[in-house]
Specification:
Blueprint lengths: L8 E4 L5 H8 L2 H4 L13 H13 L5 E6 L5 E11 L4 E8 L9 H16 L4 E7 L3 H10 L2 E12 L2 E11 H9 L4
Parallel strand pairs: 4-5
Antiparallel strand pairs: 1-2, 2-3, 3-4, 5-7, 6-7
The chain binds coenzyme A (COA).
Length: 185
């Protein structure tokens, strides 16, 4: 099935994003599959602001960007981390924090923008990710984007006291280029 992807934009984070980010992190459905501390709230407002400051100042090794919908509304974040310049790969992370936007192609569209940034601006050759085996929604989205499974990372996440396996998936630059030609934007 071919969809016309929503027209999302990525922009650099702003200090003002902290409030939305804090609210999203209070939502256990949003954070269930994210690597977050086992406390509630997982991050205080101050910790959220500190994190955003580090992203803006690029002192934490993350290329983290805000996801905006067609009208400029802030709906989530996407990032590249563990950037290995020598071997030209990095790890992707994504969350659509505003659940009204789930299941409408926004995650896919934001991921595509980040892949474009990683492959063409950062000169990467592979973008990989780790996803919990029971995060079906995310796995489906990654497969739709053209990610393939590299293997299982056994008991890779300690979630509420239980070790959960994670899949490692990746997409190569050439695969992305082929895929994007067939994607309606
Ligand atoms: C994982 C996550 C980013 C996926 O985002 P999403 O926007 O819901 O996912 P997609 O962009 O792939 O949406 C595709 C769905 O929208 C539907 N859709 C509707 N309009 C569409 C369009 N124009 N284009 C593409 N898909 C569209 C598809 O049919 C599909 O539905 P289906 O899964 O029922 O088949 C999001 O669920 C999320 O933030 N989850 C919480 C955090 C998380 O788990 N992050 C990942 C950690 S590894």
């Amino acid at each position: 099935m071919t969809f016309k992807l929503p027209n999302v934009k990525l922009r650099e984070l702003l200090l003002n994003d902290a409030e939305d980010r804090y609210q999203w992190c209070l939502d256990k459905e949003v954070t269930k599959h994210l690597n977050m501390p086992e406390k509630y709230p997982p991050f205080s407002k101050e910790e959220t602001l500190n994190w955003i400051e580090m992203c803006i100042d690029k002192t934490n090794g993350y290329e983290q960007k805000a996801i905006l919908d067609e009208s400029g509304k802030h709906i989530g974040w996407v990032d590249l981390k563990n950037i290995d310049k020598l071997n030209k790969h990095a790890e992707l992370g994504i969350a659509i924090g505003d659940k009204n936007y789930w299941g409408k192609g926004y995650g896919l569209a934001a991921m595509k923008e980040m892949l474009e940034f990683g492959f063409s601006q950062l000169g990467l050759n592979k973008i990989w990710l780790r996803v919990e085996v029971d995060n079906e929604k995310a796995i489906k989205s990654y497969e739709r984007m053209g990610y393939v499974e590299e293997g299982i990372l056994r008991q890779d996440r300690l979630r509420k006291g239980v070790f959960v396996d994670r899949l490692r998936m990746s997409i190569l630059k050439d695969e992305y280029i082929n895929k994007k030609e067939g994607m309606a934007v």
